[in-house]
Design brief:
With about 450 residues, this protein is of the alpha/beta class. The protein has helices at about 25-45, 45-60, 65-75, 80-100, 135-145, 160-175, 190-195, 210-225, 245-255, 275-290, 310-320, 350-355, 370-375, 395-400; strands at about 5-10, 15-20, 105-110, 115-120, 125-130, 150-155, 180-185, 205, 225-230, 235-240, 270-275, 325, 340-345, 360-365, 380-385, 385-390, 405-410, 425, 430, 445-450. The chain has 2 domains: about 5-230 and about 430-450, Aldehyde Dehydrogenase, Chain A, domain 1, CATH 3.40.605.10; about 235-415, Aldehyde Dehydrogenase, Chain A, domain 2 (3-Layer(aba) Sandwich). It has 14 helices and 20 strands. Helix 9 links the parallel strand 10 and strand 11 (about 270-275). The mean pLDDT is about 95. It binds nicotinamide-adenine-dinucleotide (NAD). Nicotinamide-adenine-dinucleotide (NAD) binds near residues 129, 137 and 232.
Length: about 450
């Protein structure tokens, strides 16, 4: 395996940087340094930890444009998205900083004394991040873990280490103690695996494919290592005939094309009630065809390239010649480009309809009634997100409760807010991130009974 990582610009295929890949020894040394730094950090007054996290947030805020442009170069994200992503890191750090002084245990009534609980930090946390949202997903683990008194070692994806490395520099400049937050770019099977196997790492926060998540889960079982998994998705977008069909059709394209479909929450199974099916297709087809695909730095661009050649080949393999498709445009020449694509008439069991493509491809499938919609929505091993469009409030609530997924939105495609919990049902994951309880996922509850009768 190569000892350097080559970072390519996905829009041009130009080499942006080469970065040394961490070895198992590098991971071992980093864990030792992190353990020492963590003890000092946990001993700081909560208000001081909160202040340092707010300074880290301010440093990110002061470098938003630089971070966003770096994300465009290494990941091919549109500049608008990349700015949102850098802002999300700032917001997560601020939100987590607000939790430091509110991380309270409980006092529980018992006989013969008092009983209190403490929420204690776990120690060193390994965060293994994917390439599709390098900055926000790193911060989903990083911010609450630090706020709860832990140290963090972040292993970014092979293709996207640059923003993570820059965040670590900004943390130091902001006064976050040395070695408390370390970034180790490297190969999953080497640096990632070393974090998973290391006895000094108390918890793994993994975001990535379900395949790798399962391997990591079984390795963590050996040590009963704590774990949070954020895995794949194949999320439904259910459009009932009573919905505002114009609004549903206008929102559907970007609900699966945002980030070039490389979004675990992408609404890639568009389920439309039969009575509205033809009208929906009539409206959605020109919308898909007119998506602006091109230079990610152009403010008007709505969709950039895929991350890599291998991802491009993977997406191509799903859209087989026998499928009926509607396609938008994509640039020719260098870069990992694939056009916005909508597949109609696929069997509900076809690979493109049930597997995570992770590209700008969705299927449209008709359904008969509410029961049929729920059955189709749940006919997947995944359960991350979903949307439903209806004007009937009772139906909105019934279907929201019946779809087995962690994040539902009604008449909207919103999935992720730093202040609300996020995570998957079924094979989409284990545990929750973000939201009011984000910090407690990085603590152990210790119960202490103090006798008043001695
Ligand atoms: P991936 O599983 O290939 O890699 C994710 C990370 O794991 C990378 O850093 C990689 O280097 C590392 N890794 C790979 N093999 C490893 C091993 N054996 N041990 C330890 N670490 C290892 O996933 P990807 O292709 O980078 O990301 C895309 C996937 O991530 C999609 O399936 C997507 O749905 C999922 N995802 C999920 C969420 C969510 O919140 N549920 C968010 C974003 C992405």
């Amino acid at each position: 395996m190569s000892d350097v990582l080559e970072v390519l610009n996905p829009a041009t295929e130009e080499l942006v940087a080469t970065v040394p890949a961490a070895t198992r020894d590098d991971v071992d040394a980093a864990v030792g340094r992190a353990a020492t730094a963590q003890r000092g950090w946990a001993a700081l007054a909560p208000a001081d930890r909160a202040r340092l996290l707010r300074r880290f947030a301010a440093a990110v805020d002061g470098h938003l444009e630089e971070l966003a442009r770096l994300e465009v170069r290494e990941a091919g994200h549109t500049i608008g998205n990349a700015r949102w992503e850098a802002g999300n890191v700032r917001d997560l750090l601020e939100f987590a900083a607000g939790g430091v002084e509110r991380l309270s245990g409980r006092q529980i009534p018992v006989a013969g004394g008092i009983d209190v609980t403490f929420l204690e930090p776990l120690g060193v946390i390994g965060v293994i991040a994917p390439w599709n949202f390098p900055m926000p997903i790193a911060a989903w683990g990083l911010a609450p873990a630090l706020a709860a008194g832990n140290a963090v070692i972040l292993k970014p994806a092979e293709t996207t280490p640059l923003t993570a490395l820059r965040l670590a520099e900004l943390a130091l400049e902001a006064g976050i103690p040395e070695h408390l937050f370390q970034v180790l770019p490297g190969h999953g099977a080497v640096a990632g695996d070393a974090l998973v196997e290391h006895p000094g790492v108390a918890k793994i926060v993994f975001t990535g494919s379900t395949r790798v998540g399962k391997q990591i889960m079984s390795k963590c079982a050996d040590r009963v290592k704590r774990i949070t998994l954020e895995l794949g998705g194949k999320s439904p977008n259910i459009v009932f005939a009573d919905a505002d069909i114009e609004a549903a059709a206008a929102a559907a394209p970007m609900a699966y094309l945002d980030n070039t479909g490389q979004d675990c929450c992408a609404r890639t199974r568009i389920l439309v009630q039969r009575g509205a099916y033809d009208r929906f297709l009539e409206l959605v087809a020109p919308a898909v065809e007119s998506i602006a695909v091109g230079d990610p730095l152009d403010e008007k661009t709505q969709m950039g390239p895929l991350i890599s050649r291998s991802q491009l080949e993977r997406v191509r393999a799903y859209v087989t010649d026998d499928l009926t498709t509607l396609r938008g445009k994509a640039p020719e020449g260098p870069g990992f480009w694939y056009p916005p694509t909508l597949v109609t008439g696929a069997a509900p069991t076809a690979p493109v309809a049930v597997e995570e493509v992770f590209g700008p491809v969705a299927v449209v499938l008709p359904f008969e009634d509410e029961e049929d919609a729920v059955r189709l929505a749940n006919a997947t091993e995944y359960g991350l997100s979903g949307s439903l469009w209806t004007r009937d409030l009772g139906r909105a609530l019934r279907v929201s409760r019946a779809v087995r997924a962690g994040n539902l939105s009604v008449n909207s495609h919103s999935s992720v807010r730093y202040s609300t919990p996020f995570g998957g049902y079924k094979q989409s994951g284990l545990g929750r991130e973000l939201g009011p309880d984000a910090l407690t996922a990085f603590t152990e509850t210790k119960n202490v009974f103090i006798s008043t009768e001695a």
